[in-house]
Structure formats: structure tokens, C-alpha cells
Amino acid sequence: MPVAPVGSCPDAASKLPPDATAREADWLARVYRPHETNLTVRAVVVGMAIGAAMCLSNLYVFFKTGWSMGVTLTACLLAFGSFQLLQALRLVKRPLGALENNALSTVASGAGYMTGGGNMAAFGALLMLTAVRPDPVAMIAWFGVIAALGVFVAIPIKRQLINHEGLAFPTGTATAETIASIHSAAAGGGGGKAAWLAGAGAAAAALTWMRDAWHWIPSTFGLPLTLAGRPLAEWTLSFKAEVVLIGGGALMSFRTGWSLLLGGLLTYGVLGPALLAHGIITTVSYKAIVAWTLWPGAAILVASGLTSFALDYRSIARTFTGLARIFRRQSAAAADTGLAAVECPEWWFPVGFVVLAPVVTGLMVWLFQIPLWAGLIAVPLAVAMGFVAARVTGETDVTPTKALGPVTQMIFGVITPGNLSGNIMSANVTGGIGLHAADLLTTLKTGWLLGAKPRHQFYAQLFGVLVGAAIVVPAFNLIIPDPGVLGGEAWPAPSCVVWAGVSKSFSGGIGELHASSKSAILVGLALGVALALFEKFAPKTLRPLLPSPAGLGIAMVLPGSNCIAMFAGASAAEFMRRRFPVLAEKTVVPVASGLIAGESLMGILIAVLVVTGLLAR
């Protein structure tokens, strides 16, 4: 991993709080760089500009494809290149520092991801079902407050997931490696890793251009085999020519990788044909299969995530006992020493919740006619789902909005039957909080590896979500003036169509589900709890043999081809680490990072060329 200069904080270990781990002491002593520049005015300004541009790009891509592209990797490279150019033109004197770039990318990520987390899916679905467009200022406040609450939700789980468990957060790790490589290469060192990164990025960019711009390479490669009389490709069991998935898999643990493959094969090789044979589904497609497997997959994710979090009762206690600091008569400098002076204070989360939760609840009641008592349920539920989303993202690099959003829709179908707008937007609360908590934790992982200041990244994320909220609503109104175009040929908006369909299906509650889906939910809940307990209490020698509940659950809402590609990446990385450990240390993370950065950068360029009419899709 990227390591800061040794001895950057030599006396930190003596100031550690009593519950600090050896891993945290090592980080303070060897990695943390307290005297280097982090958040600056120019980082905020440029980060906002890059984040705004990527938010607009993601908005277009989202309504065309249903997906939002990655932000942090793209942002750090754009920032580095921009400052290199400005320096060459003598418009800036001081080069962009690595930790300054990290803070800048955090700002950009907060803004650029405003299209995700169900925000635009919910907004589009709301217009499709009700044709009522809420006041733009109110919607800006809605998205901004939800995102800000998600930022606060990340505080109580940061130490557990990053400091203690060291979850991968693959995009966060890739961003750290990218920043470390490009800045060390610019300073005259680290050229080896930078060269691997650049080479992989160039190869990924070239492949993406040939696949998506020139169409010389097919997006998927099927096998000449059949299952239940249908080609494997119809069951989504094929090879995808998307190296971003291989790169993401290489940054996961091998356990998560093979769990994804296991879950994908069970979903599309076993459950799919069984559903078809029993008449539960009538067509073979990803959409038809996932409409059923979504429920057991979501149940596994929810049960395992909440069980793991409950088992860490000490973290929960630390969060709320931190409130006592507000009433202590001592200065912040005296109260916070060692690690406590570096991390975001634990009392920030409950204070943020107390301030923001009533605002979210009030907006739910005012804008979407959700009963007050139902709104009081929605926000704590969304926070709990945010904890789940953060853990799943840390293990798999996939924030499970598609799984957790419908869970909220189903619950609100029971407690507020017939309220379509409330059903959709309550799920938006869950998705938005979960995404922005996971997004901040991803950038905090980058900061952990680089030795950055967590508090500065917290501030940076808040700057980002505020500018993202201010841009995404007017931009949506500009490009989609008539909601009737959603779901049509010009603007397919697949995610909006799915959210609208789920809302209509569950406006009557869980009774609308097929009986087999209800049974599958119970099985998923039991399996999720069991896997979490085994993971906690099983002997260490057996834990690598148990499937990851996050990998297994998320595989049930991903195409089988995605699971296969990520497993291939995880397998290749594991092979390198076992057979060629020295070479693996130099190449695995830089190459994986390059694959992710190259495809994401080229994907955005192609999207811009298409929207400007310079390239035909």
C-alpha cells in the first residue's frame, strides 16, 4: 500500500486512546502526515468544478444506461493533469500535493455521485408515476440534506471498517495507489509503479474506445453451451469485455471474489432455471431473474450487515458516549489527543443526526405527504441501511442501492399503502444515505493509505454534496423538461423504470410478493445471520473457507457476467501474490488501478463525444 515517510508522528503512539489497536499506532507512527497540506481553497474550488462536470456527465449517462460512472479515480487524474498544465503556463506556482489532491478528489466525489444512491432513479420514477414536479429549491434541499446525513453516518463506522478491519474499499485503494504513483513519479521517484499504472490505463482506454466508439470488440463473449435449452448468454453467464470489472476484482480479497462467482452461478445457473421450470418467471433475462433473486440477496446483505454491526457493540457505545464531550468544560485541544485529535469526533454523528433527521422528516411530510410517524421510522431505518451499504461497499466495491432501496419500498408499502410518492422517496432516503456514507468511507480509505487528515476529508465531502445538490436538480429539469420522455427510446432511464415498477408492485405491501419470494426472504435472513456469526466466531483456519455474505448477497443482484469478470480479477491477483509475491507487490494494485482509471476516463470521454454529436453511438 502507499506508505508515507517513516516517523511522521513519532510520539503518537504514546497518546493513543485506551481502545486503540496496534494497527492504528502503526498508522500514526509510519503513515500519518500531519504537516502536509490537505484541504485548501484551491482544492475546494477545483474539486467543485471537476465534480460539477462529472455530475453533469453522470446525469446524461444515467438516463441513457441506468448507471453512474466512477468519480474519485477520474477526479484525481484530472486534477493532477490540470495543475501540471497550469504550472507549465505559470498560472500557479505551487504544485498540487498528494494529500491536497486527495482532498480535491473527495470534494469532486461528493458532487459527482449526486446522481447515484437512488437520487435520480427516485426523482425520475416520481415524475413518471405522478407527473408532479416538486419545487426545485425544495428538491435541492432534499438531496443536499440526505447526502449530508449520509456523510455523518460514516463517522461511527470509519474506525471499525477501515482502522480495525482494514476492508478493501477497492476504489479507495486504487485511488490511493494512483495518487501516490503519479505524484511520486512527478517528483522523480516511483516511476516503476507509475509506468505499470500508465500502461494498464492506456491499454484499458484503447480497449474501451475500440469497444464503445468503433464497435470493433463485442461487449460480451458467450460460450457455445446451453442451460435448460437456452444459451448461457441469455442467463447472463458470459465473459464481459469490461476490464474495469477485472480491475475491481483484483482489488478485492480472493474470498470475496470466489463468493461472487458462487453467488452468480447459484443465481443464474440454479435458481434461474428453477424459477423458469416452476413458472415463477416466464422469460429468461437478467431483469426477470433479478426481480425474484433481489429479495433473498437483499435479505442476506441486510441480515449479515446488521448482525456484524450489532456484534461490534463497543463501536455503538463509543458513538453515543461521545456526546458527553459537548458538555465538558475543556478546550478541544485538551480533549483530543493522539488518534482522537485526528479522527472526526464520535459525537459529531449523533449531533448531525439530531440536526438533520428532523429536516429530512419534515421534507418527507411536506413534499411527499408521508405521515409524520412513518417519516420518524424512515430516517433511523435509512441510517441502519447506511451501515449495511458501507460494509458491502468495503468488501465488494458495490454499493447495494438496488438491493436496499426496494427493501424500504416494501416496508413502506406495508405501513403507508397506496402512497406512491412516499414509497419512492422513502427508498431515496435509504439509497442516498447509504451511497454518501459509502462514498465518504471510500475516500477515507484513500486518506488512510496516504496519511491524510480524516476531518479535512469530512469537510471536503460536505462541500462536494452541497454543490452536487445545487447542480443536479436544475440540470435534470433542463435535459428532461417533459417527464413523458422517460422510459422511451431517447431516454430509456432503466433505473427509473425499475423503481417505478417496484413502487407500483409494493404499494399494497409484502402481500404483493409471490409466496416463493417470502420464503426466500426468510432463508436469506437466516443465512445472513448465520454467515455473520460464523465469520465472527469460527476458528481462523475455517474463515477463509466460508463464503462472504456481502459477496454472496450482492451476486444475486448483479449480472452473472459481472461476477465472472470480478472473480477472474481476484483469481489473477491471488495467483500473482502466491507465485510471484515480489512482482505482485509492484504490479497488482497499479495495474488494477490503471484498468479502472483507463476505462472510466475513456467511458466519460465517449459519453461527452456522443452528447455533443461528435461521435455516433
Report on the structure:
- With 617 residues, the chain is mainly alpha-helical.
- The chain contains 24 helices and four strands.
- A two-stranded antiparallel sheet has the order 1-4. It has a two-stranded antiparallel ribbon with strand order 2-3.
- A hairpin with a 2-residue loop joins strand 2 and strand 3.
- Helix 18 (420-450) crosses helix 20 (494-506).
- Residues 1-8, 10-14 and 325-336 have low confidence and may be disordered.
Fill in the keyword field for this structure:
disordered N terminus; 1% strand; mainly alpha; 617 residues; two-stranded antiparallel sheet
Strand and helix map with partners:
Layout: H1 22-31, H2 41-65, H3 72-88, H4 98-112, H5 119-130, H6 136-153, H7 155-164, H8 170-186, H9 191-213, E1 220-221, E2 226-227, E3 230-231, E4 239-240, H10 243-250, H11 254-277, H12 286-311, H13 313-321, H14 332-335, H15 348-368, H16 372-396, H17 401-415, H18 420-450, H19 454-479, H20 494-506, H21 515-537, H22 549-555, H23 560-579, H24 581-611
Helix pairs in contact: 2-4, 2-19, 2-24, 3-4, 3-8, 4-8, 4-18, 4-19, 5-18, 5-20, 6-15, 6-18, 6-19, 7-13, 7-18, 8-9, 8-18, 8-24, 9-24, 10-23, 10-24, 11-22, 11-23, 12-16, 12-17, 12-21, 12-22, 15-16, 16-17, 16-18, 17-18, 17-20, 18-19, 18-20, 23-24
